[in-house]
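Here is one such tokenized protein:
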Amino acid sequence: MRASLYRHIANISQAQGDQYNLLFSLQTTLLSFIHDGVSARDIYQFALNYVKERQPELEKHLVKNIGFAVCPNASIATRR
């Protein structure tokens, strides 16, 4: 996979390569999961479950946010 190339170039360990492959796969999967109407909470939960199923020991290291969301219909306050 992709990690084997980086392992050769950057001399990373097998565990680091496995983690890289997991995160790359998660990113690719999340991009297909995200669509209009899916809440940020659901996206985070999906990512958390994805990591739990594949490498549960990494769950505690997963960041507690998945980014930010902006409501397109939110009103913008203007200065007077």
